[in-house]
Amino acid sequence: MSILVVGSVAFDSVKTPFGEAKDILGGSASYFSIAASFFSPVNLVAVVGEDFGDQFLDLFKSFSIDTRGLKRIPGRTFRWTGEYGFALNEAKTLETQLNVFENFLPEIPAGYRNSEYVFLGNIDPVLQREVLRQVKKPRFVACDTMNYWIQSKLNELKKTLALVDILIINDAEARMLTSEPNLTKAARTIRSWGPKTLVVKKGEYGVAMFMDGSIFGAPAFPLEEVFDPTGAGDSFAGGFVGYLAKAGRMDEQTVRKAVIFGSVMASFNVEDFSLNRLKRLLPSEIQQRYREFKNLTHFEVDDSF
Amino acid sequence: MSILVVGSVAFDSVKTPFGEAKDILGGSASYFSIAASFFSPVNLVAVVGEDFGDQFLDLFKSFSIDTRGLKRIPGRTFRWTGEYGFALNEAKTLETQLNVFENFLPEIPAGYRNSEYVFLGNIDPVLQREVLRQVKKPRFVACDTMNYWIQSKLNELKKTLALVDILIINDAEARMLTSEPNLTKAARTIRSWGPKTLVVKKGEYGVAMFMDGSIFGAPAFPLEEVFDPTGAGDSFAGGFVGYLAKAGRMDEQTVRKAVIFGSVMASFNVEDFSLNRLKRLLPSEIQQRYREFKNLTHFEVDDSF
Which site in A116, A158, B80, B204 is 20 to 30 Å from A167, CA atoms measured? Predict the structure, then answer.
Protein backbone atom coordinates (compact mmCIF):
# COMPACT_ATOMS: atom_id res chain seq x y z
CA MET A 1 0.00 0.00 0.00
CA SER A 2 3.03 2.34 0.12
CA ILE A 3 2.90 5.52 -1.92
CA LEU A 4 6.06 7.00 -3.43
CA VAL A 5 5.83 10.79 -3.82
CA VAL A 6 8.40 12.91 -5.62
CA GLY A 7 8.05 16.68 -5.49
CA SER A 8 9.06 19.85 -3.74
CA VAL A 9 9.59 20.60 -0.07
CA ALA A 10 9.81 24.33 0.47
CA PHE A 11 9.63 27.27 2.81
CA ASP A 12 6.74 29.57 1.93
CA SER A 13 6.07 33.15 2.93
CA VAL A 14 2.38 33.81 2.52
CA LYS A 15 0.16 36.84 2.97
CA THR A 16 -3.62 36.55 2.93
CA PRO A 17 -6.27 39.11 3.93
CA PHE A 18 -6.38 37.29 7.28
CA GLY A 19 -2.73 37.17 8.23
CA GLU A 20 0.87 36.69 7.22
CA ALA A 21 3.43 33.98 7.88
CA LYS A 22 7.12 33.73 7.00
CA ASP A 23 9.26 30.67 6.17
CA ILE A 24 6.57 28.13 6.94
CA LEU A 25 6.75 24.54 5.72
CA GLY A 26 5.31 24.18 2.22
CA GLY A 27 5.91 22.54 -1.15
CA SER A 28 3.76 20.08 -3.08
CA ALA A 29 5.35 16.96 -1.58
CA SER A 30 4.90 18.23 2.00
CA TYR A 31 1.17 18.83 1.58
CA PHE A 32 0.71 15.63 -0.40
CA SER A 33 2.63 13.45 2.07
CA ILE A 34 0.93 14.60 5.23
CA ALA A 35 -2.57 14.44 3.65
CA ALA A 36 -1.90 10.96 2.21
CA SER A 37 -0.42 9.69 5.48
CA PHE A 38 -3.92 9.65 7.04
CA PHE A 39 -4.72 6.82 4.62
CA SER A 40 -1.50 4.98 3.65
CA PRO A 41 2.25 4.83 4.36
CA VAL A 42 4.22 7.40 2.36
CA ASN A 43 7.77 7.30 0.98
CA LEU A 44 9.01 10.83 0.34
CA VAL A 45 11.61 11.87 -2.26
CA ALA A 46 12.63 15.54 -2.31
CA VAL A 47 15.60 17.81 -1.70
CA VAL A 48 16.15 20.46 0.98
CA GLY A 49 19.02 22.69 2.05
CA GLU A 50 21.12 23.00 5.19
CA ASP A 51 18.54 25.45 6.59
CA PHE A 52 15.96 22.65 6.85
CA GLY A 53 15.86 21.95 10.57
CA ASP A 54 15.39 18.58 12.24
CA GLN A 55 12.03 19.69 13.61
CA PHE A 56 10.61 19.47 10.06
CA LEU A 57 12.06 16.00 9.56
CA ASP A 58 10.55 15.04 12.90
CA LEU A 59 7.19 16.38 11.76
CA PHE A 60 7.20 14.09 8.71
CA LYS A 61 8.29 11.17 10.86
CA SER A 62 5.47 11.84 13.34
CA PHE A 63 3.10 11.06 10.43
CA SER A 64 5.04 7.82 9.75
CA ILE A 65 6.37 9.30 6.52
CA ASP A 66 9.55 7.58 5.36
CA THR A 67 12.17 10.34 4.84
CA ARG A 68 15.10 8.24 3.65
CA GLY A 69 14.53 9.83 0.22
CA LEU A 70 14.52 13.40 1.55
CA LYS A 71 18.05 14.60 0.76
CA ARG A 72 19.56 17.47 2.73
CA ILE A 73 22.39 19.05 0.69
CA PRO A 74 24.54 22.20 0.86
CA GLY A 75 22.63 25.36 0.03
CA ARG A 76 19.25 26.82 0.87
CA THR A 77 15.82 25.19 0.64
CA PHE A 78 13.39 26.17 -2.18
CA ARG A 79 11.53 29.33 -1.17
CA TRP A 80 8.22 30.74 -2.47
CA THR A 81 6.66 34.06 -1.53
CA GLY A 82 3.10 34.81 -2.52
CA GLU A 83 -0.06 36.62 -1.57
CA TYR A 84 -3.81 36.29 -2.04
CA GLY A 85 -6.49 38.96 -2.43
CA PHE A 86 -9.93 38.80 -0.86
CA ALA A 87 -11.28 36.47 -3.55
CA LEU A 88 -8.57 33.93 -2.55
CA ASN A 89 -8.89 32.18 -5.90
CA GLU A 90 -5.42 32.81 -7.27
CA ALA A 91 -2.02 33.28 -5.68
CA LYS A 92 0.12 36.16 -6.82
CA THR A 93 3.71 34.93 -6.80
CA LEU A 94 6.01 37.64 -5.47
CA GLU A 95 9.24 35.66 -5.49
CA THR A 96 10.53 32.19 -6.28
CA GLN A 97 14.00 31.06 -5.17
CA LEU A 98 14.61 27.56 -6.53
CA ASN A 99 17.87 27.20 -4.54
CA VAL A 100 18.73 23.47 -4.08
CA PHE A 101 15.60 22.51 -6.06
CA GLU A 102 17.11 23.98 -9.23
CA ASN A 103 19.32 20.96 -9.86
CA PHE A 104 17.06 18.36 -8.28
CA LEU A 105 17.68 14.91 -9.78
CA PRO A 106 15.37 12.48 -8.01
CA GLU A 107 17.09 9.35 -6.73
CA ILE A 108 14.76 6.66 -5.55
CA PRO A 109 16.23 4.76 -2.57
CA ALA A 110 16.38 0.98 -3.03
CA GLY A 111 13.84 0.53 -0.23
CA TYR A 112 11.28 2.61 -2.14
CA ARG A 113 11.49 0.87 -5.51
CA ASN A 114 8.70 -1.57 -4.76
CA SER A 115 6.22 1.21 -3.86
CA GLU A 116 2.89 0.06 -5.27
CA TYR A 117 1.59 3.57 -5.91
CA VAL A 118 3.48 6.53 -7.35
CA PHE A 119 2.61 10.23 -7.28
CA LEU A 120 4.72 12.40 -9.55
CA GLY A 121 4.46 15.92 -8.15
CA ASN A 122 4.78 18.99 -10.31
CA ILE A 123 8.39 18.73 -11.58
CA ASP A 124 10.01 18.67 -15.04
CA PRO A 125 8.23 15.94 -17.08
CA VAL A 126 11.66 14.58 -18.07
CA LEU A 127 12.41 14.01 -14.36
CA GLN A 128 8.95 12.51 -13.85
CA ARG A 129 9.89 9.82 -16.42
CA GLU A 130 13.28 9.39 -14.76
CA VAL A 131 11.43 8.51 -11.53
CA LEU A 132 9.35 5.90 -13.37
CA ARG A 133 12.54 4.40 -14.83
CA GLN A 134 13.82 3.77 -11.30
CA VAL A 135 10.77 2.02 -9.85
CA LYS A 136 9.49 -1.51 -10.41
CA LYS A 137 6.06 -1.80 -12.02
CA PRO A 138 3.70 0.06 -9.65
CA ARG A 139 -0.05 -0.65 -9.49
CA PHE A 140 -0.72 2.88 -10.65
CA VAL A 141 1.03 6.16 -11.39
CA ALA A 142 -0.68 9.48 -10.67
CA CYS A 143 0.75 12.77 -11.85
CA ASP A 144 0.46 16.54 -11.50
CA THR A 145 1.86 19.28 -13.74
CA MET A 146 1.53 23.06 -14.21
CA ASN A 147 1.25 25.81 -16.84
CA TYR A 148 5.05 26.25 -16.91
CA TRP A 149 5.64 22.71 -18.24
CA ILE A 150 2.62 22.87 -20.57
CA GLN A 151 4.05 25.98 -22.20
CA SER A 152 7.74 25.08 -22.20
CA LYS A 153 7.86 21.26 -22.52
CA LEU A 154 4.59 20.09 -24.07
CA ASN A 155 6.12 17.23 -26.03
CA GLU A 156 8.06 15.91 -23.02
CA LEU A 157 4.89 16.21 -20.94
CA LYS A 158 2.92 14.18 -23.48
CA LYS A 159 5.59 11.46 -23.33
CA THR A 160 5.15 11.36 -19.54
CA LEU A 161 1.35 11.32 -19.79
CA ALA A 162 1.57 8.21 -21.99
CA LEU A 163 3.01 6.39 -18.92
CA VAL A 164 0.52 7.72 -16.38
CA ASP A 165 -2.77 6.20 -15.12
CA ILE A 166 -4.21 9.26 -13.39
CA LEU A 167 -3.63 12.93 -14.17
CA ILE A 168 -4.65 15.47 -11.51
CA ILE A 169 -4.65 19.08 -12.78
CA ASN A 170 -6.76 22.22 -12.52
CA ASP A 171 -9.31 23.37 -15.09
CA ALA A 172 -7.17 26.18 -16.53
CA GLU A 173 -4.35 23.66 -17.07
CA ALA A 174 -6.71 21.18 -18.77
CA ARG A 175 -7.85 23.91 -21.15
CA MET A 176 -4.29 25.13 -21.80
CA LEU A 177 -3.02 21.59 -22.36
CA THR A 178 -5.58 20.98 -25.12
CA SER A 179 -6.36 24.53 -26.39
CA GLU A 180 -10.01 23.54 -25.89
CA PRO A 181 -12.36 25.67 -23.72
CA ASN A 182 -14.97 22.89 -23.32
CA LEU A 183 -13.79 20.80 -20.36
CA THR A 184 -15.61 17.64 -21.43
CA LYS A 185 -13.95 17.75 -24.83
CA ALA A 186 -10.58 18.62 -23.25
CA ALA A 187 -10.94 15.58 -20.99
CA ARG A 188 -11.57 13.31 -23.97
CA THR A 189 -8.37 14.56 -25.64
CA ILE A 190 -6.19 14.25 -22.52
CA ARG A 191 -7.46 10.74 -21.84
CA SER A 192 -6.55 9.75 -25.41
CA TRP A 193 -2.92 10.64 -24.58
CA GLY A 194 -2.62 8.08 -21.80
CA PRO A 195 -4.22 8.77 -18.40
CA LYS A 196 -7.36 6.60 -18.21
CA THR A 197 -8.54 8.69 -15.28
CA LEU A 198 -8.50 12.49 -15.32
CA VAL A 199 -9.23 14.54 -12.22
CA VAL A 200 -9.86 18.25 -12.84
CA LYS A 201 -9.70 20.54 -9.80
CA LYS A 202 -11.79 23.71 -10.05
CA GLY A 203 -10.90 25.36 -6.73
CA GLU A 204 -13.99 26.68 -4.97
CA TYR A 205 -16.13 25.08 -7.69
CA GLY A 206 -15.14 21.51 -6.84
CA VAL A 207 -13.85 18.63 -8.92
CA ALA A 208 -14.79 16.79 -12.12
CA MET A 209 -13.47 13.25 -12.63
CA PHE A 210 -13.46 11.55 -16.02
CA MET A 211 -13.18 7.76 -16.41
CA ASP A 212 -14.28 5.29 -19.06
CA GLY A 213 -17.87 6.12 -19.94
CA SER A 214 -18.50 8.12 -16.78
CA ILE A 215 -18.14 11.61 -15.38
CA PHE A 216 -18.32 12.40 -11.67
CA GLY A 217 -18.96 15.93 -10.41
CA ALA A 218 -18.48 17.04 -6.81
CA PRO A 219 -18.74 20.55 -5.33
CA ALA A 220 -16.10 21.92 -2.99
CA PHE A 221 -16.98 21.96 0.69
CA PRO A 222 -18.64 25.32 1.43
CA LEU A 223 -16.45 27.03 4.04
CA GLU A 224 -17.21 30.38 5.62
CA GLU A 225 -13.56 30.91 6.45
CA VAL A 226 -10.87 30.10 3.92
CA PHE A 227 -7.73 31.19 5.71
CA ASP A 228 -4.97 30.24 3.24
CA PRO A 229 -5.56 28.32 -0.03
CA THR A 230 -1.86 27.32 -0.39
CA GLY A 231 -1.53 23.56 -0.77
CA ALA A 232 -5.22 22.88 -1.42
CA GLY A 233 -4.51 21.06 -4.68
CA ASP A 234 -1.66 19.03 -3.18
CA SER A 235 -3.64 18.01 -0.09
CA PHE A 236 -6.49 17.05 -2.47
CA ALA A 237 -4.06 14.81 -4.35
CA GLY A 238 -2.78 13.37 -1.06
CA GLY A 239 -6.26 12.42 0.13
CA PHE A 240 -7.22 11.11 -3.31
CA VAL A 241 -4.14 8.93 -3.91
CA GLY A 242 -3.94 8.01 -0.22
CA TYR A 243 -7.49 6.64 -0.20
CA LEU A 244 -6.98 4.72 -3.47
CA ALA A 245 -3.83 3.11 -2.06
CA LYS A 246 -5.67 2.20 1.14
CA ALA A 247 -8.58 0.71 -0.85
CA GLY A 248 -6.24 -1.12 -3.25
CA ARG A 249 -8.87 -0.88 -6.01
CA MET A 250 -9.51 1.42 -8.97
CA ASP A 251 -13.16 0.64 -9.75
CA GLU A 252 -15.38 3.61 -10.43
CA GLN A 253 -17.12 3.77 -7.04
CA THR A 254 -13.76 3.63 -5.25
CA VAL A 255 -12.32 6.44 -7.39
CA ARG A 256 -15.44 8.55 -6.68
CA LYS A 257 -14.96 8.03 -2.95
CA ALA A 258 -11.30 9.00 -3.38
CA VAL A 259 -12.39 12.29 -5.00
CA ILE A 260 -14.48 13.04 -1.92
CA PHE A 261 -11.65 12.15 0.49
CA GLY A 262 -9.35 14.40 -1.54
CA SER A 263 -11.91 17.21 -1.28
CA VAL A 264 -12.19 16.61 2.47
CA MET A 265 -8.42 16.95 2.95
CA ALA A 266 -8.27 20.11 0.80
CA SER A 267 -11.14 21.66 2.75
CA PHE A 268 -9.34 21.14 6.07
CA ASN A 269 -6.01 22.31 4.69
CA VAL A 270 -7.27 25.79 3.75
CA GLU A 271 -8.56 26.43 7.28
CA ASP A 272 -5.11 27.51 8.52
CA PHE A 273 -1.61 28.48 7.34
CA SER A 274 0.85 25.85 6.11
CA LEU A 275 0.16 22.35 7.46
CA ASN A 276 -1.18 23.68 10.76
CA ARG A 277 -4.71 22.31 10.29
CA LEU A 278 -3.59 18.90 9.04
CA LYS A 279 -1.15 18.67 11.97
CA ARG A 280 -4.05 18.69 14.44
CA LEU A 281 -6.57 16.80 12.25
CA LEU A 282 -8.30 13.73 13.69
CA PRO A 283 -9.49 10.71 11.66
CA SER A 284 -12.95 11.22 13.18
CA GLU A 285 -13.05 14.71 11.63
CA ILE A 286 -12.28 13.23 8.21
CA GLN A 287 -15.11 10.74 8.65
CA GLN A 288 -17.49 13.48 9.79
CA ARG A 289 -16.73 15.79 6.86
CA TYR A 290 -17.11 12.90 4.40
CA ARG A 291 -20.65 12.45 5.78
CA GLU A 292 -21.25 16.19 5.43
CA PHE A 293 -20.20 15.94 1.76
CA LYS A 294 -22.80 13.20 1.30
CA ASN A 295 -25.43 15.47 2.82
CA LEU A 296 -24.27 18.40 0.68
CA THR A 297 -24.79 16.55 -2.60
CA HIS A 298 -27.60 14.08 -1.96
CA PHE A 299 -30.93 14.30 -3.76
CA GLU A 300 -33.67 11.74 -4.20
CA VAL A 301 -34.58 9.91 -7.38
CA ASP A 302 -37.76 11.17 -9.02
CA ASP A 303 -40.74 9.25 -10.36
CA SER A 304 -43.04 12.19 -11.11
CA PHE A 305 -42.72 12.00 -14.90
CA MET B 1 -50.59 25.09 -9.16
CA SER B 2 -50.55 28.04 -11.59
CA ILE B 3 -47.41 30.11 -11.82
CA LEU B 4 -47.57 33.83 -12.55
CA VAL B 5 -44.46 35.10 -14.32
CA VAL B 6 -43.70 38.75 -15.00
CA GLY B 7 -40.69 39.64 -17.13
CA SER B 8 -39.42 40.41 -20.58
CA VAL B 9 -40.37 38.98 -23.96
CA ALA B 10 -37.84 40.04 -26.55
CA PHE B 11 -36.27 39.52 -29.92
CA ASP B 12 -32.61 38.57 -29.63
CA SER B 13 -29.85 38.65 -32.19
CA VAL B 14 -27.12 36.30 -31.07
CA LYS B 15 -23.72 35.34 -32.39
CA THR B 16 -21.79 32.41 -30.97
CA PRO B 17 -18.67 30.68 -32.34
CA PHE B 18 -21.07 28.09 -33.77
CA GLY B 19 -23.54 30.28 -35.62
CA GLU B 20 -25.60 33.42 -35.77
CA ALA B 21 -29.34 34.12 -35.56
CA LYS B 22 -31.32 37.35 -35.93
CA ASP B 23 -34.57 38.44 -34.29
CA ILE B 24 -35.22 35.14 -32.55
CA LEU B 25 -37.65 34.82 -29.65
CA GLY B 26 -35.97 35.59 -26.32
CA GLY B 27 -36.46 37.44 -23.03
CA SER B 28 -36.47 36.11 -19.48
CA ALA B 29 -40.22 35.46 -19.36
CA SER B 30 -40.17 33.50 -22.64
CA TYR B 31 -37.48 31.11 -21.44
CA PHE B 32 -39.00 30.86 -17.98
CA SER B 33 -42.54 30.20 -19.25
CA ILE B 34 -41.73 27.49 -21.73
CA ALA B 35 -39.38 25.69 -19.32
CA ALA B 36 -41.92 25.90 -16.47
CA SER B 37 -44.79 24.74 -18.71
CA PHE B 38 -43.34 21.21 -18.73
CA PHE B 39 -44.25 21.05 -15.03
CA SER B 40 -47.15 23.44 -14.29
CA PRO B 41 -49.61 25.84 -15.97
CA VAL B 42 -48.12 29.30 -16.56
CA ASN B 43 -49.76 32.75 -16.61
CA LEU B 44 -47.55 35.16 -18.54
CA VAL B 45 -47.39 38.94 -17.99
CA ALA B 46 -45.16 40.92 -20.37
CA VAL B 47 -45.34 43.56 -23.10
CA VAL B 48 -44.51 43.29 -26.81
CA GLY B 49 -44.81 45.60 -29.83
CA GLU B 50 -46.78 45.50 -33.06
CA ASP B 51 -43.93 43.55 -34.66
CA PHE B 52 -44.66 40.54 -32.42
CA GLY B 53 -46.33 38.14 -34.83
CA ASP B 54 -49.16 35.75 -34.02
CA GLN B 55 -46.87 32.78 -34.58
CA PHE B 56 -45.08 33.65 -31.30
CA LEU B 57 -48.38 33.91 -29.43
CA ASP B 58 -49.33 30.57 -30.93
CA LEU B 59 -46.04 29.10 -29.71
CA PHE B 60 -46.79 30.11 -26.10
CA LYS B 61 -50.34 28.76 -26.45
CA SER B 62 -49.03 25.44 -27.79
CA PHE B 63 -47.34 25.04 -24.37
CA SER B 64 -50.68 25.84 -22.66
CA ILE B 65 -49.25 29.16 -21.47
CA ASP B 66 -51.97 31.69 -20.67
CA THR B 67 -51.18 34.85 -22.69
CA ARG B 68 -54.05 37.09 -21.54
CA GLY B 69 -51.41 39.09 -19.68
CA LEU B 70 -49.12 39.48 -22.71
CA LYS B 71 -49.96 42.98 -23.94
CA ARG B 72 -49.27 43.94 -27.55
CA ILE B 73 -49.02 47.73 -27.83
CA PRO B 74 -47.94 50.29 -30.46
CA GLY B 75 -44.17 50.34 -30.97
CA ARG B 76 -41.42 47.77 -31.34
CA THR B 77 -40.63 44.77 -29.14
CA PHE B 78 -37.61 44.84 -26.76
CA ARG B 79 -34.49 43.88 -28.73
CA TRP B 80 -31.15 42.56 -27.46
CA THR B 81 -28.04 41.92 -29.54
CA GLY B 82 -25.13 40.02 -28.05
CA GLU B 83 -22.29 37.67 -28.77
CA TYR B 84 -20.26 34.99 -27.01
CA GLY B 85 -16.60 34.05 -27.38
CA PHE B 86 -15.25 30.50 -27.36
CA ALA B 87 -15.39 30.24 -23.58
CA LEU B 88 -19.19 30.90 -23.74
CA ASN B 89 -19.20 32.00 -20.12
CA GLU B 90 -20.24 35.61 -20.58
CA ALA B 91 -22.34 37.42 -23.17
CA LYS B 92 -21.01 40.63 -24.61
CA THR B 93 -23.98 42.94 -25.09
CA LEU B 94 -23.67 44.81 -28.39
CA GLU B 95 -27.00 46.64 -28.32
CA THR B 96 -30.10 46.94 -26.15
CA GLN B 97 -33.28 48.58 -27.48
CA LEU B 98 -35.83 48.68 -24.68
CA ASN B 99 -38.61 49.92 -27.02
CA VAL B 100 -42.05 49.10 -25.52
CA PHE B 101 -40.38 47.53 -22.47
CA GLU B 102 -39.08 50.96 -21.39
CA ASN B 103 -42.43 52.02 -19.92
CA PHE B 104 -43.62 48.57 -18.91
CA LEU B 105 -46.07 48.77 -16.02
CA PRO B 106 -47.17 45.25 -15.21
CA GLU B 107 -50.95 44.84 -14.97
CA ILE B 108 -52.08 41.53 -13.58
CA PRO B 109 -55.31 40.32 -15.26
CA ALA B 110 -58.12 39.49 -12.81
CA GLY B 111 -57.92 35.84 -13.85
CA TYR B 112 -54.28 35.66 -12.73
CA ARG B 113 -54.62 37.17 -9.26
CA ASN B 114 -55.14 33.83 -7.55
CA SER B 115 -51.91 32.34 -9.00
CA GLU B 116 -50.44 30.24 -6.19
CA TYR B 117 -46.85 30.76 -7.28
CA VAL B 118 -45.20 33.96 -8.47
CA PHE B 119 -41.93 34.44 -10.34
CA LEU B 120 -40.73 38.03 -10.54
CA GLY B 121 -38.39 38.18 -13.52
CA ASN B 122 -35.53 40.63 -13.73
CA ILE B 123 -37.36 44.02 -13.80
CA ASP B 124 -37.17 47.19 -11.66
CA PRO B 125 -37.57 46.12 -8.00
CA VAL B 126 -40.24 48.83 -7.59
CA LEU B 127 -42.29 47.11 -10.31
CA GLN B 128 -41.65 43.73 -8.73
CA ARG B 129 -43.37 45.01 -5.56
CA GLU B 130 -46.15 46.51 -7.69
CA VAL B 131 -46.82 42.99 -9.03
CA LEU B 132 -47.04 41.63 -5.49
CA ARG B 133 -49.49 44.41 -4.56
CA GLN B 134 -51.85 43.15 -7.28
CA VAL B 135 -51.92 39.45 -6.38
CA LYS B 136 -53.72 37.66 -3.54
CA LYS B 137 -51.46 35.89 -1.06
CA PRO B 138 -49.48 33.35 -3.14
CA ARG B 139 -47.96 30.19 -1.65
CA PHE B 140 -44.53 31.48 -2.54
CA VAL B 141 -42.78 34.27 -4.40
CA ALA B 142 -39.53 33.65 -6.28
CA CYS B 143 -37.46 36.45 -7.72
CA ASP B 144 -34.56 37.24 -10.04
CA THR B 145 -32.55 40.47 -10.35
CA MET B 146 -29.34 41.69 -12.01
CA ASN B 147 -26.24 43.83 -11.50
CA TYR B 148 -28.02 46.91 -12.94
CA TRP B 149 -30.61 46.99 -10.11
CA ILE B 150 -28.02 46.06 -7.49
CA GLN B 151 -25.94 49.07 -8.48
CA SER B 152 -28.70 51.58 -9.16
CA LYS B 153 -31.55 50.62 -6.78
CA LEU B 154 -30.10 48.64 -3.89
CA ASN B 155 -32.49 50.01 -1.28
CA GLU B 156 -35.56 49.34 -3.43
CA LEU B 157 -34.23 45.87 -4.14
CA LYS B 158 -33.82 45.15 -0.43
CA LYS B 159 -37.45 46.20 0.13
CA THR B 160 -38.51 43.70 -2.52
CA LEU B 161 -36.31 40.94 -1.08
CA ALA B 162 -38.08 41.36 2.26
CA LEU B 163 -41.26 40.11 0.51
CA VAL B 164 -39.67 37.21 -1.35
CA ASP B 165 -39.39 33.52 -0.37
CA ILE B 166 -36.81 32.43 -2.94
CA LEU B 167 -34.10 34.49 -4.62
CA ILE B 168 -32.47 33.03 -7.74
CA ILE B 169 -29.31 34.90 -8.83
CA ASN B 170 -25.84 34.17 -10.14
CA ASP B 171 -22.69 34.08 -8.03
CA ALA B 172 -21.29 37.42 -9.23
CA GLU B 173 -24.61 39.06 -8.30
CA ALA B 174 -24.61 37.43 -4.84
CA ARG B 175 -21.12 38.80 -4.22
CA MET B 176 -21.99 42.25 -5.57
CA LEU B 177 -25.21 42.41 -3.55
CA THR B 178 -23.33 41.82 -0.28
CA SER B 179 -19.79 43.09 -1.09
CA GLU B 180 -18.64 39.71 0.26
CA PRO B 181 -16.40 37.40 -1.81
CA ASN B 182 -17.16 34.30 0.31
CA LEU B 183 -20.37 32.84 -1.12
CA THR B 184 -21.38 31.05 2.08
CA LYS B 185 -21.14 34.29 4.04
CA ALA B 186 -22.90 36.22 1.25
CA ALA B 187 -25.74 33.69 1.40
CA ARG B 188 -26.12 34.18 5.14
CA THR B 189 -26.44 37.95 4.65
CA ILE B 190 -28.93 37.72 1.76
CA ARG B 191 -31.10 35.24 3.66
CA SER B 192 -31.19 37.64 6.61
CA TRP B 193 -32.84 40.23 4.33
CA GLY B 194 -35.86 38.04 3.54
CA PRO B 195 -35.53 35.11 1.15
CA LYS B 196 -35.46 31.91 3.25
CA THR B 197 -34.16 30.05 0.22
CA LEU B 198 -31.31 31.31 -1.92
CA VAL B 199 -30.35 29.66 -5.20
CA VAL B 200 -26.98 30.73 -6.62
CA LYS B 201 -26.33 29.85 -10.26
CA LYS B 202 -22.67 29.43 -11.20
CA GLY B 203 -23.00 28.76 -14.94
CA GLU B 204 -20.83 25.85 -16.02
CA TYR B 205 -19.95 25.25 -12.36
CA GLY B 206 -23.49 24.38 -11.32
CA VAL B 207 -25.70 25.60 -8.50
CA ALA B 208 -25.54 26.12 -4.74
CA MET B 209 -28.79 26.26 -2.76
CA PHE B 210 -28.98 27.64 0.77
CA MET B 211 -31.88 26.86 3.11
CA ASP B 212 -32.29 26.75 6.87
CA GLY B 213 -29.36 24.78 8.23
CA SER B 214 -28.52 23.17 4.91
CA ILE B 215 -26.51 23.75 1.75
CA PHE B 216 -27.01 21.77 -1.44
CA GLY B 217 -24.38 21.72 -4.18
CA ALA B 218 -24.98 20.38 -7.69
CA PRO B 219 -22.65 20.49 -10.72
CA ALA B 220 -23.87 21.60 -14.13
CA PHE B 221 -24.54 18.85 -16.63
CA PRO B 222 -21.29 18.27 -18.57
CA LEU B 223 -22.10 18.99 -22.23
CA GLU B 224 -19.63 18.59 -25.07
CA GLU B 225 -21.56 21.07 -27.20
CA VAL B 226 -22.88 24.28 -25.69
CA PHE B 227 -24.41 26.00 -28.68
CA ASP B 228 -25.91 29.18 -27.17
CA PRO B 229 -25.95 29.98 -23.43
CA THR B 230 -28.68 32.66 -23.78
CA GLY B 231 -31.61 31.92 -21.47
CA ALA B 232 -29.81 29.26 -19.40
CA GLY B 233 -30.54 31.07 -16.13
CA ASP B 234 -34.19 31.73 -17.04
CA SER B 235 -34.84 28.16 -18.15
CA PHE B 236 -33.19 27.03 -14.89
CA ALA B 237 -35.64 29.23 -12.97
CA GLY B 238 -38.54 27.86 -15.06
CA GLY B 239 -37.68 24.23 -14.31
CA PHE B 240 -37.00 25.04 -10.64
CA VAL B 241 -40.20 27.01 -9.95
CA GLY B 242 -42.21 24.77 -12.29
CA TYR B 243 -41.25 21.64 -10.37
CA LEU B 244 -41.94 23.25 -6.97
CA ALA B 245 -45.40 24.34 -8.15
CA LYS B 246 -46.08 20.84 -9.47
CA ALA B 247 -44.92 19.27 -6.19
CA GLY B 248 -46.85 21.80 -4.08
CA ARG B 249 -44.28 21.45 -1.29
CA MET B 250 -41.23 23.38 -0.10
CA ASP B 251 -39.48 20.81 2.11
CA GLU B 252 -35.74 20.46 1.66
CA GLN B 253 -35.74 17.28 -0.43
CA THR B 254 -38.34 18.77 -2.80
CA VAL B 255 -36.30 21.96 -3.25
CA ARG B 256 -33.18 19.88 -3.96
CA LYS B 257 -35.06 17.96 -6.66
CA ALA B 258 -36.27 21.30 -8.06
CA VAL B 259 -32.62 22.45 -8.36
CA ILE B 260 -31.87 19.35 -10.44
CA PHE B 261 -34.94 19.85 -12.66
CA GLY B 262 -33.87 23.47 -13.17
CA SER B 263 -30.39 22.29 -14.11
CA VAL B 264 -31.88 19.76 -16.51
CA MET B 265 -33.93 22.45 -18.30
CA ALA B 266 -30.93 24.80 -18.52
CA SER B 267 -28.76 22.02 -19.93
CA PHE B 268 -31.23 21.34 -22.72
CA ASN B 269 -31.78 25.02 -23.43
CA VAL B 270 -28.13 25.71 -24.29
CA GLU B 271 -28.06 22.95 -26.91
CA ASP B 272 -29.61 25.20 -29.58
CA PHE B 273 -30.46 28.83 -30.37
CA SER B 274 -33.44 30.56 -28.75
CA LEU B 275 -36.14 28.13 -27.55
CA ASN B 276 -35.46 25.66 -30.36
CA ARG B 277 -34.34 22.83 -28.08
CA LEU B 278 -37.16 23.28 -25.57
CA LYS B 279 -39.67 23.38 -28.45
CA ARG B 280 -38.80 19.81 -29.40
CA LEU B 281 -38.10 18.53 -25.87
CA LEU B 282 -39.93 15.41 -24.64
CA PRO B 283 -40.88 14.69 -21.01
CA SER B 284 -39.06 11.37 -21.33
CA GLU B 285 -35.84 13.30 -22.10
CA ILE B 286 -36.27 15.35 -18.91
CA GLN B 287 -36.73 12.17 -16.91
CA GLN B 288 -33.67 10.59 -18.57
CA ARG B 289 -31.38 13.56 -17.89
CA TYR B 290 -32.55 13.74 -14.27
CA ARG B 291 -31.34 10.13 -13.93
CA GLU B 292 -28.04 11.08 -15.58
CA PHE B 293 -27.64 13.87 -12.99
CA LYS B 294 -28.09 11.28 -10.26
CA ASN B 295 -25.39 9.15 -11.85
CA LEU B 296 -23.12 12.19 -12.26
CA THR B 297 -23.16 13.06 -8.56
CA HIS B 298 -23.64 9.77 -6.74
CA PHE B 299 -21.01 8.33 -4.42
CA GLU B 300 -21.26 5.69 -1.73
CA VAL B 301 -21.09 6.23 2.00
CA ASP B 302 -17.82 5.15 3.58
CA ASP B 303 -17.16 3.03 6.65
CA SER B 304 -13.39 2.65 6.30
CA PHE B 305 -12.51 5.01 9.15
Answer: B204
